[in-house]
Amino acid sequence: MNRPESINAISQSMRDSMFDALTAYSYDKEAKACIIYGAGERGFCSGADLIEFGKSRSQTESRSIRRRRDLWGLLSQIKKPLIVAVHGYVIGAGLEITSLCDIRVSSKDAVFGMPEVAHGFIPGAGGTQSFPRAIGKTHAMRQFLTDRNDRMTAQRALELGLIHKIVSRDVLLKAAYNLAEEITLTDLEVLIAMKTAVLDGWYMPMSLGLDLEKRLKGRIKLNN
């Protein structure tokens, strides 16, 4: 994400660019890992660009376009590894993106927040679903309802399982690249099967999830 002047607030053009890039990644037969990060010193992402949204000729039309190019829906469906490297402000839609990635690395100075309720509305990019799944319903509800005065630190995010590793800012991308390089040592078919088993099985009864695992494992054996 490359709008450092607005702390990478997500505009329509940025959303569309990310949607296209992630769609290309999902269909690429060689790419095995994707890293999402934000340019600039101030933060990963400050949320949606509310100034642009407010200037839209039709908010109904804007929402319609957003549904057709649903970046967050795409993130939730990609069956290939997604790594996110966050720093500074990780707010609103930026936190929703983070919650939908598989491996999350953070700098020590990261601050996480969901300020929508304090501004009179609720998260609209899947946060009511992805964030509780990342850290649990109880912790997510507290953050939703009291974010105005109690942002989440990187250390707290690590304790709750929102992020997997804290590093200093100067080695943040290197840490993400190291993880990506480790992932690329594995066959792409195995990576896709692994993520499919976890994501699709998550919403199934245990018996159906185990059956899915067995079928995916059998498919890998046949192909190898």
Describe this structure in words.
The chain contains 11 helices and 8 strands. It is an alpha/beta fold and 224 residues long. The protein folds into 2 domains: 4-183, Alpha-Beta Complex (2-enoyl-CoA Hydratase, Chain A, domain 1), CATH 3.90.226.10; 188-223, no CATH class. A 4-stranded parallel β-sheet has the order 1-3-5-8, with helices on both faces. It has a 4-stranded mixed β-sheet with strand order 2-4-6-7. The longest helix is centred in the C-terminal third of the chain and has 18 residues, at 206-223. The N and C termini lie far apart (38 Å).
Please summarize what this structure is:
The protein has 224 residues and is of the alpha/beta class. 52% of the residues lie in helices and 12% in strands.
Order of strands in the sheet with most strands: 1-3-5-8
Summarize the helix and strand pattern as letters.
HEEHHHEEHEEHHEHEHHH
Q: How many domains would you count in the coordinates? A: 2
Topology, number of strands: 8
CATH fold group of the largest domain: 2-enoyl-CoA Hydratase, Chain A, domain 1
Query: For the record, what CATH class of the largest domain applies?
Result: Alpha Beta
Question: What is the helical fraction, as a range of percent?
Answer: 40-55%
What is the strand content?
Answer: 5-15%
Number of alpha- plus pi-helical segments: 11
What separation lies between the terminal Cα atoms? 38 Å
Low-confidence stretches: none
Counting helices, strands and paired strands, the structural category is alpha/beta
> What is the name of the CATH superfamily of the largest domain?
2-enoyl-CoA Hydratase, Chain A, domain 1
Identify the overall geometry: globular
Largest sheet: 4 strands, parallel
CATH architecture of the largest domain: Alpha-Beta Complex
- Global Rg: 18 Å
Rounded average pLDDT? 89
